[in-house]
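Ticket #4471: structure output looks truncated?

Reporter: J.K.
Steps to reproduce: submitted the chain below (693 residues) through the standard prediction queue, then opened the result file.
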Amino acid sequence: MMNGGAADTPRAFVKEVKRIVIKVGTAVVTRGDGRLALGRLGALCEQIKELNYQQYEVIVVTSGAVGLGRQRLKYRKLVNSSFADLQKPQVDLDGKACAAVGQNCIMALYDTLFSQLDVTSAQLLVTDSDFRDKDFRKQLKHTLESLLSLRVVPIINENDAVSTRRAPYEDSSGIFWDNDSLAALLALELKADLLVLLSDVEGLYSGPPSDPESKLIRTYIERVHLGGITFGDKSRVGRGGMTAKVKAAVMAAKAGVPVIITSGFDPESIVKVLQGDDVGTLFHRDAHLWVKTKEAGARDMAVAARECSRRLQALSSEDRKKILLDIANALEANEKVIKVENDADVAAAEQAGMEKALIARLALKPGKITSLAKSIRVLASMVDPVGHVLKTTELADGLVLEKTSSPLGVLLIVFEARPDALVQIASLAIRSGNGLLLKGGKEARRSNAILHKVITDAIPDNVGRRLIGLVTSRDEIPDLLKLDDVIDLVIPRGSNKLVSSIKASTKIPVLGHADGVCHVYVDKSANMQMAKRVIVDAKVDYPAACNAMETLLVHKDLVSSGGLNELVLELRNEGVVLHGGPRASEELSIPEPASLHHDAHTDCIISEDLEVAETFLRQVDSAAVFHNASTRFSDGARFGLGAEVGISTSRIHARGPVGVEGLLTTRWLLRGSGQIVDGDKAITYTHKDLTSV
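Returned output as attached by the reporter:
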């Protein structure tokens, strides 16, 4: 057996490895132009020959057949085509035909290379449907055990030529979904001692390998790295890429088979792995026991955010402004990688069957990053809110008191699966001089991770990246809610159930954001053309938003005048599904809703009667009340606040769209020259307002 640097290290287990599954990725088998990478394959076969000689049992799972077959068939098609044929639109080649040709090509190559090295190899083709058969799995295992006992190297590939998948690179359903997961499944079935996944990079990085800031992760620890890794683009030629490898590695490691992802470009990569060299990324069931993690506990995270916020407050106004401008630039510079991660979240949400409205909130639509960057620049250009003198009072001769704006301290924001909210909240926290802890919806895990990285990377070292902490596990929330000595305000964005649950679990002040039920009331005096425009915009412009109209109320006279039917027709033409209260459902023959709710979010009246409108504006007790304007205007950016952490329906501290001012409190600064109280005997109070002086 090979021996090396594994003694007394997390990789000491490699000394006991006997049976090893090696998965060779498409990017390892082929070059950038799609042709065979003969040099890499030759080096791989030489390493396997050495392992075979040293009595290791080696099973190879190989990719590359479809790519090789496509390259071969393209060449054949070109040779057999006339000039006229080449002028016609070219139809994509059938993937299964490519697989059939490619399987023959790749196995012939392996056979030739191994024969030169005096090693016998065998080919086994399997499909996902085969693995559904218990007897098939039993027979496959028996055959592989027989081959291994004869020192034969089994080479296994998914039989894409006859697979029932819709297309080799599109359908990810089934027991295994690519050759990475097939390799993991075989490693478990055969009770392998080690699974090695060969890639075109050295291992798993904290971000795209092309990013100079990305770091190679030597040992993967789920509670540390899950949600904090930014994956790059999928494989240039294969089905999965690094995301698929990590998924397969985690599955196998949890089941007891150690996994190492390493480079297939290194001609000695497997030898180095079995020597215990610190190459690639290790996945192991006991990894969390070996490595002292740098993961901050709840208190450490909150304390760090507070310390960083104090350094932020000590900066000049211009320096704080520059941080925001740097963040805006960084978002635009990283738009492509942000889009990759967001697309992955959206795809996962769609596959999980999430509601369309939730997916709409999750997706960063084209132009969204540019819009967010623009909002941050607007916020940066506003008058600095920190340390602003709100009132100056002379208490007595030579004794002057100032009331100034001041950051709250540390904010904990629990928000929905809406990545753009993370950007808005972070920029507001920086502008207001606050530390910040963020917990976003799990559906936006990848998007939140990359956005958090981009933003914190733009924060200078003299402030510290831990100014903004990203909470990745729901399990950490109860611990954070106990820290009323460190965290100053909790803002939960979500359902009433979430808000109520948090209020009941903490002594920290909670700024509640409720369901966001918005009403539009159409008065009998309303201009009906205006009414139709306003209610359609309020409902259809962005239905997933909290400021979209949920409830339409109409004056009773509009029933007999036909005005109600006009409004209903307009909404139905826009595809709006209608439900009605007891009277409306009977009048319009529409179903009643399961329940009726009201809220104090945003309410609007459409009326030409100014007296009625003024009464509505004064007496409706909602956070925002409008006259002849869409509820969609209830938004921090549209109000000129630059951004918002949400829309509060609370009555204490802040109400309506909460921008910078809602994240500030006040401090009193008193300047004197040795005055004392002494029972107020020797002091004459003037209480003169000097604010405008």
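Triage note (M.O.): checked the attachment and the full token line is present. Residues 675 and 681 are 12 Å apart (CA to CA).
Status: closed, working as intended.
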